[in-house]
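ok, trying the design again with the full structure, not the truncated one.
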C-alpha cells in the first residue's frame, strides 16, 4: 500500500532505486532505457557527475535564502547566461520551479505589461487547439487538451483557440505547404479580428508541439507569419518551450530555427534536466522596461523562485551542453535516429508519420495508412504500448485517446542528448518489438 496519490490510483508504479546514463533501475533489479528522457526532461541522462558536483557544492555553500531578502550567485549567473545565449533583447529572466509555474508567470507578466501601458481592456489570450501548457488553472485555460480541461472547465478563463500547425493531419490533398500555412495565418487573423485586437493580451503556442500531438514542428514561415500578425495587431507572442527548449531540437531555443523573436519564452523540463525542479520565463527588454517605468514591480512571486540549488544545477547543465557541444550532437543524433526509425517503420502499416526536430521525435499511429484513420480510443492503444514497452525495459511516452475532439495515438521519443547511436539502435529494436506485441493484442 502506498500513501502517495499516484497518477493511476489503482496501480503503484515500479520503485526507481537508481539511475545512471540513459538507464533507470527499479527495486526488482529491472533496468529501463530512458528513450523519452522521462517526459523530455533528462537531456544529460542520469547521475551526470558535473551536475551532481555543482549541486553538492551549492548545498554546502548556501542551500536556500528567500528571494524577498536575497539574490544568489547561481541564479544571477544562470540568468545572465540564458540571456546572453538568447537572440535579440530577451535579456531578462524570471526563475520558478517548473513549466506550469513558468506559464502562469508569463501570462501574468503579459497582462501586467498591458495594464501598465494603460490598456486594461486587454484581458484575453489567443491560443491553439491540441496544445499543452501545464496543469495549473491559467496554463490549462490556454491549453487545448480537452480531456485535461473538461473537469475543470468552469474554473478556467475563456480563451479562443485556432488550429495548430499540424501538416500531417490538416494539409489537404493537393494543397501546398505554403497554401496550408497561409490558410492557418488567415484563420489566426480572423480570430484576432473576431476577439478584437484591443481586447487581446497575446498569442500562446508551443514552438514544436509536444505531448498532445507528438513532436509536431511548424511549417516553414508559420511563425514568421504569426509574428507579423502579432506586430500588426499589437499582441505579445508567448512561445512555450518547456518541452522543446534548452537544446532538445538542436538549437538552445527551438524558435531560433523559425527566424522569429518572441516577447516571452517559457522554459522548464530540460532547464534543470531532471536534477532539480526549475522553470523560467525569458522576457524582452521592452516588457521589463514598461514595468520598471510603471509600478516598479511585477506582482508575482513564489517561495522557491530562484532557488540556489536548482539554479546551480541548471547552470551546470548549460555549461555541460556548451562544453560538450551537445547542440551539434542533438542535430546529428536526431538525424541518425529518424533514419533508423524510417528504416524500421517507414513502411509499417500502422505508422502514419515519423516527424520531429532534433531529439524530439514523434510517431503517429494509424489503423489504416492511406486514410490516416486513427485507432478507436476504446482500444486504448497508447496504454497498451506503455505497458509493453516497460515490460521490455523501454521508457517511451505514448499518448492517445481523444485530444480536443480528435482521435489519435502517437509515441513521443526524447532520449538524452548523450545517447549513442548503438543505444538508439537498441531503442529502435525494442520499440519494434513493443509495437508488434501491442498491435497484436490491441487488434485481437
Ligand atoms: N508546457 C509544455 C509544452 C509541456 O510539455 C509541459 C509539461 O509537460 C508544461 C508546459 C508543464 O510543465 P510542468 O509539468 O513542469 O508543470
Amino acid at each position: 500500500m502506498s500513501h502517495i496519490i499516484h497518477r493511476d490510483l489503482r496501480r503503484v508504479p515500479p520503485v526507481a532505486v537508481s539511475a545512471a546514463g540513459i538507464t533507470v533501475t527499479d527495486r526488482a533489479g529491472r533496468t529501463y532505457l530512458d528513450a523519452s528522457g522521462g517526459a523530455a526532461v533528462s537531456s544529460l541522462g542520469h547521475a551526470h557527475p558535473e551536475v551532481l558536483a555543482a549541486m553538492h557544492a551549492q548545498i554546502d555553500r548556501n542551500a536556500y535564502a528567500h528571494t524577498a531578502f536575497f539574490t544568489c550567485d547561481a541564479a544571477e549567473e544562470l540568468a545572465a547566461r540564458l540571456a546572453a545565449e538568447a537572440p535579440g533583447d530577451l535579456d531578462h529572466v524570471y526563475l520558478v520551479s517548473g513549466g506550469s509555474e513558468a506559464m502562469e508567470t508569463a501570462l501574468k507578466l503579459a497582462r501586467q505589461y498591458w495594464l501598465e501601458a494603460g490598456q486594461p481592456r486587454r484581458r484575453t489570450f489567443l491560443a491553439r487547439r491540441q496544445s499543452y501548457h501545464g496543469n495549473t488553472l491559467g496554463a490549462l485555460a490556454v491549453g487545448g487538451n480537452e480531456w485535461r480541461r473538461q473537469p475543470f472547465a468552469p474554473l478556467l478563463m475563456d480563451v479562443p483557440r485556432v488550429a495548430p500547425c499540424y501538416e500531417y493531419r490538416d494539409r489537404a490533398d493537393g494543397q501546398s505547404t505554403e497554401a496550408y500555412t497561409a490558410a492557418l495565418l488567415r484563420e489566426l487573423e480572423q480570430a484576432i479580428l473576431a476577439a478584437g485586437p484591443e481586447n487581446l493580451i497575446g498569442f500562446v503556442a508551443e514552438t514544436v508541439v509536444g505531448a498532445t500531438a507528438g513532436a509536431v514542428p511548424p511549417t516553414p514561415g508559420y511563425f514568421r507569419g504569426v509574428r507579423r500578425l502579432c506586430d500588426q495587431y499589437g499582441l505579445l507572442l508567448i512561445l512555450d518551450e518547456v518541452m522543446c527548449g534548452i537544446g532538445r531540437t538542436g538549437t538552445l531555443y527551438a524558435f531560433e530555427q523559425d527566424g522569429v523573436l518572441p516577447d516571452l519564452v517559457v522554459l522548464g523540463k530540460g532547464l534543470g534536466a531532471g536534477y532539480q525542479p526549475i522553470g523560467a520565463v525569458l522576457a524582452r527588454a521592452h516588457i521589463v522596461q514598461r514595468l520598471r517605468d510603471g509600478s516598479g514591480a511585477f506582482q508575482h512571486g513564489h517561495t522557491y523562485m530562484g532557488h540556489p540549488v536548482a539554479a546551480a544545477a541548471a547552470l551546470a547543465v548549460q555549461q555541460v551542453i556548451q562544453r560538450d557541444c551537445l547542440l551539434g550532437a542533438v542535430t546529428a543524433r536526431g538525424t541518425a535516429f529518424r533514419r533508423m526509425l524510417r528504416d524500421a517503420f517507414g513502411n509499417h502499416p500502422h505508422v502514419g508519420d515519423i516527424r520531429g526536430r532534433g531529439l524530439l521525435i514523434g510517431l503517429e499511429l494509424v489503423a489504416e495508412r492511406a486514410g490516416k484513420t486513427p485507432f478507436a480510443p476504446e482500444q486504448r492503444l497508447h496504454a497498451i504500448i506503455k505497458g509493453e514497452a516497460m515490460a521490455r525495459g523501454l521508457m517511451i511516452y505514448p499518448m492517445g485517446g481523444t485530444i480536443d475532439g480528435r482521435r489519435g495515438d502517437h509515441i513521443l521519443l526524447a532520449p538524452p542528448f548523450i545517447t549513442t547511436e548503438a543505444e538508439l539502435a537498441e531503442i529502435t529494436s525494442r520499440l519494434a518489438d513493443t509495437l508488434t506485441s501491442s498491435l497484436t493484442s490491441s487488434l485481437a
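Keeping the full-length input from now on. The CA atoms of residues 250 and 328 lie 6 Å apart.
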